Amino acid sequence: MAQIRIENVRKDFGSFNAVKSSTFTIEDGEFFMLLGPSGCGKTTTLRMMAGLELPTAGEIYIDGEEVGMKPASQRDIAFVFQMFALYPHLNVGKNISYPLISQGMPKAQVKKKVNEIAEILGITDILNRPVGGLSGGDRQRVALGRAIVRDPKAFFMDEPLGALDAEFREHMSEELRALHDRMNATTVYVTHDQLEAMQMGDKIVVMNHGVVEQFGVPQDIYDWPATKFVAQFIGSPPMNFLDFHGMVGTGETHVDFGGASFEIPKMLNGANGALTFGIRPEHITLDDAASYRGEVAAVEYLGTTQIITLDTANGLVKARTASSDTVKVGQKTGLRFDPRTVSIFDAENGKALT
Ligand code: ATP
Q: Does ligand 1 come within 6 angstroms of the Cβ of 11?
């Protein structure tokens, strides 16, 4: 088990700065997600923690010991790759036992350990099967078995479910999370899929262009995004943004745009000037009596809810309402915003005001 801390870690590839100075802590036993779009630096960050890439600057601690310049082999960690390479000429049991045999563990102990792991992963009945004919899910389980059999301090996974189809992916992500909850080993997991990160992670780091935009528990990241980038990247459909001119009131902030004027019950430092009002689709209700108006441009039926696109003075706004609400394209209606769930961003630098 391990706590992992990175402090002011930076990575340059030649003159290209792939990871800007990053600092965060992964607590012992956490399932920790590194999330962001392609090229944001999440794999590079993971590889530095694992010892597969050396940081250009900064420190990496595993259980308080600085390991930044140590190779992976000296960090007692296990890596699960997307394109997991199993030994094709060995059967399932031998693939799993390989790391123990190469460590010189006595045969009887190896057998006991492999049986334990097979039990946890539900693959006892295929231990003697060649890996060649296995399904994607079973191959993934064998790869996991091989990673966990050594009881490493931490697991590092880079998009491990990326190669699986959508349905199977969901099933395996539930299995992985359940496995983690049984073993409680620190796990660092790279993904570009915000839903996967929200569903599986205890904590999430959101990265963009090599910068850590936010670090926290999924609910805080969803409810209180630190930047417009995070607000847009997390949530589907993403948060709506409406530009307005704000004023600092005494104990509240006054919002004024396109016919709507109301107070947000929180005082925002520096809320004076060009600001962006952010609201999630589920925090908008349609109410004919509301003064802020829009025309329904599209209705997307999603089963229990529907996404309604409204054309407003500030551009298109999406609302999520119950499918039982009858709404027709072309209909004019009022929009009511729940002022308690609003985020306000500095329009220039995209940072949330608190
Ligand atoms: P993806 O999901 O596409 O793998 P990522 O967020 O994991 O993206 P990284 O793989 O960490 O991103 O790459 C970050 C940036 O660093 C990218 O622009 C990438 O091209 C660059 N990069 C990564 N490895 C190297 C390398 N060995 N040499 C040069 N540039 C690299």
A: no
Q: Please tell me the number of Cα atoms within 13 Å of 156 on its side-chain side.
A: 18
* Pocket probe mutation, ligand 1, options 12, 33, 40, max atoms within 8 Å of Cβ: 40
Same domain for 97 and 74, yes or no, is: yes
Considering the domain architecture, whether residues 166 and 53 belong to the same structural domain is answered as yes
| Same domain flag for 97 and 153 | yes
Q: What is the ipTM of this complex?
A: 0.93
Of 43, 53, 188, 191, best ligand 1 pocket probe by most atoms within 8 Å of the beta carbon: 43
**Residue 250 and residue 221 share a domain:** no
Cβ–ligand 1 distance for 113 under 6 Å, the answer no
- Residue of 127, 187, 192, 130 lying closest to 161 (CA atoms): 192
The residues with which 352 forms a beta bridge, in sequence order, are 345
Summarised one tens digit per residue, pLDDT across range 189-204 is: 999 999 999 999 999 9
Pull the structure tokens for residue 281: 């689709």
